[in-house]
Amino acid sequence: MSQTILIVEDEVAIAQNLCYALATDGFTPVHVSLGQTALDMLQTDQSKIALIVLDVGLPDLNGFEICRRLRQFCQTPVIFLTARGDEIDRIVGLEIGADDYVTKPFSPRELVARVRAILRRQLLPVAAETPIDQVPERFELRADEARIFYYGACLTLTRYEYLLLKTLIERPNFLFSRAQLMDLVWTNAANTMDRTVDTHIKSLRAKLKLINAQDDPIQTHRGMGYSIALA
C-alpha cells in the first residue's frame, strides 16, 4: 500500500516538484499550504500520514511552533524544509523533535531518499512478544534494522536519538565527551552546538523512563560527558 506524505508548503512550485518526485517514487503526496490545516488534519486522523515535510516559513504559523504542537499528540516523523540556514534554526528544529532538516535550494530526489531512510525504521515488523518467563535484557541493538529495544520494548526514536543511543550502547561504560559524541553522531549537521547533546540525552532519558521508571542507564559525568551501563 502506498504511504501518504503530507507536504506543508506555501510555495506552489516547490510543492508541485515534491509531489511529482514523491509520486514517481511510489508515495501518495498530500499538499496543504497552511500549518493550521495540517494540524487539524493530523488531529482528525494522524494514522493516515506516514511522514510530514514541513516548511518553517508558513504564512499562518511558524513551522517550529507547528512541530511543538504536533509533538503533544503525534510522533509522526517530520522533515523540516526551509530557506533559513542559521545555526540556531538547525538546532531548534532538531531539539523540538524533527527527524531531519533540509535547506533550500535542495534536490527533490535527495529529499525522497531521506524520506525513505526515515520510514525504513518506522515500517519494520513488530517483534514477537517476549515469553512471560523470560526476562528481557536491558538493551538490544538491532543495527541492521535501525532499532533499539529496551527491556523488550522497541523505542520510538528520532534519527539523532537513535544514533546517539547506538553510539553509547556499542561502547558500554565508556566515557564519551560531548565533543566526541558531536563528532560521531552529528557528522552531517554542520555547526551544531554542544548543548544539542544534552538536549538529546534528556529526551532519551524521558523515553526510557516511560518503559522503566526505576532505571537510569545513562550516566552523567559532570564536566566530562556521558556513558551507559548495559546491565
Topology:
Elements (H helix, E strand, L loop, with lengths): L3 E5 L3 H13 L3 E5 L2 H11 L5 E5 L7 H8 L7 E5 L4 H9 L4 E4 L4 H15 L16 E4 L4 E4 L2 E2 L4 H12 L7 H8 L9 H17 L6 E4 L3 E4 L3
Parallel strand pairs: 1-2, 1-3, 3-4, 4-5
Antiparallel strand pairs: 6-7, 7-8, 9-10
Structural overview:
The chain is α/β, with parallel strands linked by helices. The protein has 8 helices and 10 strands. It has helices at 12-24, 35-45, 63-70, 87-95, 108-122, 159-170, 178-185, 195-211; strands at residues 4-8, 28-32, 51-55, 78-82, 100-103, 139-142, 147-150, 153-154, 218-221, 225-228. The strands form 3 sheets. It has a 5-stranded parallel beta sheet with strand order 2-1-3-4-5, sandwiched between helices.
The portion of residues assigned to helices is: 40-55%
Percent strand: 15-25%
Please tell me what the overall shape is: elongated
Described by strand count, sense and barrel closure, the largest sheet is: 5 strands, parallel
One letter per element, helices H and strands E, the order comes to EHEHEHEHEHEEEHHHEE
Structure described in brief:
This protein has helices at residues 12-24, 35-45, 63-70, 87-95, 108-122, 159-170, 178-185, 195-211; strands at 4-8, 28-32, 51-55, 78-82, 100-103, 139-142, 147-150, 153-154, 218-221, 225-228. With 231 residues, it is of the alpha/beta class. β6 (139-142) and β7 (147-150) form a beta hairpin.
Keywords:
231 residues; alpha/beta; five-stranded parallel sheet; three-stranded antiparallel sheet; 18% strand
